[in-house]
Amino acid sequence: MVKICCIGAGYVGGPTMAVIALKCPSIEVAVVDISVPRINAWNSDQLPIYEPGLDAVVKQCRGKNLFFSTDVEKHVREADIVFVSVNTPTKTRGLGAGKAADLTYWESAARMIADVSKSDKIVVEKSTVPVKTAEAIEKILTHNSKGIKFQILSNPEFLAEGTAIQDLFNPDRVLIGGRETPEGNKAVQALKDVYAHWVLEDRILTTNLWSAELSKLAANAFLAQRISSVNAMSALCEATGADVTQVSYAVGKDTRIGPKFLNASVGFGGSCFQKDILNLVYICECNGLPEVAEYWKQVIKINDYQKNRFVNRVVSSMFNTVSNKKIAILGFAFKKDTGDTRETPAIDVCKGLLGDKARLSIFDPQVTVDQIQRDLTMKKFDWDHPLHLQPMSPTTVKQVTCVWDAYEATKDAHGICILTEWDEFKNLDFKRIYDNMQKPAFVFDGRNIVNVDQLREIGFIVYSIGKPLDAWLKDMPAVA
Ligand SMILES: NC(=O)c1ccc[n+]([C@@H]2O[C@H](COP(=O)([O-])OP(=O)(O)OC[C@H]3O[C@@H](n4cnc5c(N)ncnc54)[C@H](O)[C@@H]3O)[C@@H](O)[C@H]2O)c1
Ligand SMILES: O=c1ccn([C@@H]2O[C@H](COP(=O)(O)OP(=O)(O)O[C@H]3O[C@H](CO)[C@@H](O)[C@H](O)[C@H]3O)[C@@H](O)[C@H]2O)c(=O)[nH]1
């Protein structure tokens, strides 16, 4: 029986391995982590991450051919294929701080693999890593290997949160990069055989190691670039009376462009886009390509601009101050159908409003009070380290309350900011909400999910990203 071990039981390691176990009953899969609470949660009824469809997959395989354990060394030693899916945060100190990937966790995993292994292994990069990481990892593995042979493969993951199970069941492509040697080809084939249990052959792409590593960074950069492009257009739409939804529909009808990923928003969030673009920028700089680095940097600059612009719209609409005003924040996760708040635009928007002394009442159906308080007090990039290494939040932000209901959050509020596109926000009783708010009552829709005309009819002053402006907002300063 082939044995797989995955180091890192996070958003990628957990769902990916659960699906491999489900689709390959003949393979034994162990997911290991240094975080005891995380592994305990994977072994309980309350999984550590919220992902539609995940519970059912885990329940079907756990205890049969899917195991979650903190006994990292034992499972690595026994495995034929070791996936490494640990954190690769942005460096906060030293060379490349604020841009380069911090490979501390990857390196320690590689050293441990070399130390405990007693048989040949295929080591698979599942984490997103800088191009050429495999070379460094190979050096660590072969230096300490006592004659054991390791083949390193790059197999980046393309799942998106909220649709992870769907994406894993039916991936656009599976990418496997390996050394172009007989041993390398054999290792690539072994991993191909795993995916071939459920992925069509023409969707399994094989490349050299460096192409696979770089393709992951390139894919995220392209995706984020589309969002920054449409968000840049949204500012121009507001200035000219065009409607960004109509513009992106018209643009996306061109089959060369395509309709997906063209929704204007308060900005993109999530653990990957910003981190991976910063990483790409750093790699370009290190390779003497400052113009290319500058090009990609702009995607992040526009994203920051969009978040600032949103805060400025809120403040300027409300008589240029939100001091001591209650603002309801609907949605804190970085997108719907996840409880993940990593790099969520809500953090920057909330911090911006708190900077102007607003009182915030936050509701998100999946995010806990503790998480929100941690996010609002944590330093940039601290979130991307294993849980037990993250600082506990010693202080709470007093002007922030978290509630478990949108009606409670909006009661007596002066304004509402919609920051996540949860389906339930579309069906709220806005008449009831309006009646319980201070007047004039404002809605700032950062996800373009409300029916603007209906809300204006009720009496709200509405701002919706990239849409023709409410008369109230027309003479207000719009620049960030
Ligand atoms: N989240 C996504 O949607 C996504 C998608 C594709 C790729 N990625 C990439 O995958 C990687 C993992 O992302 P994630 O979101 O799953 O992160 P995560 O923080 O959810 O999980 C990483 C896990 O690795 C564990 N870990 C760290 N060092 C360890 C070690 N030495 N031994 C054992 N366990 C260790 C941590 O405790 C943590 O539980 C990152 O490189 C990320 O960029 C993420
Ligand atoms: O038209 C759009 C599409 C997305 N977003 C925002 O962009 C962010 C990222 O969304 P999404 O890409 O759906 O989620 P992620 O889970 O971050 O997935 C991305 O990052 C992963 C980690 O690398 C990759 O594996 C995925 O392919 C890639 O889509 C979220 O804040 C979305 O709200 C928009 O604002 N407009």
UniProtKB/TrEMBL annotation:
SUPFAM superfamilies: 6-phosphogluconate dehydrogenase C-terminal domain-like (SSF48179), NAD(P)-binding Rossmann-fold domains (SSF51735), UDP-glucose/GDP-mannose dehydrogenase C-terminal domain (SSF52413)
Start and end residues of each UDP-glucose/GDP-mannose dehydrogenase C-terminal domain: 328-452
Alphabetized UniProt keyword annotations: NAD, Oxidoreductase
Binding-site residues, NAD(+): 8-13, 33, 38, 86-90, 127-128, 161, 272-275, 342
Domain of life of the source: Eukaryota
Broad enzyme group: oxidoreductase
Biological processes per GO annotation: glycosaminoglycan biosynthetic process; UDP-glucuronate biosynthetic process
EC annotation from Swiss-Prot or TrEMBL: 1.1.1.22
Family: Belongs to the UDP-glucose/GDP-mannose dehydrogenase family.
Full protein name: UDP-glucose 6-dehydrogenase
Organism: Gossypium harknessii
Native organism taxonomy: Eukaryota, Viridiplantae, Streptophyta, Embryophyta, Tracheophyta
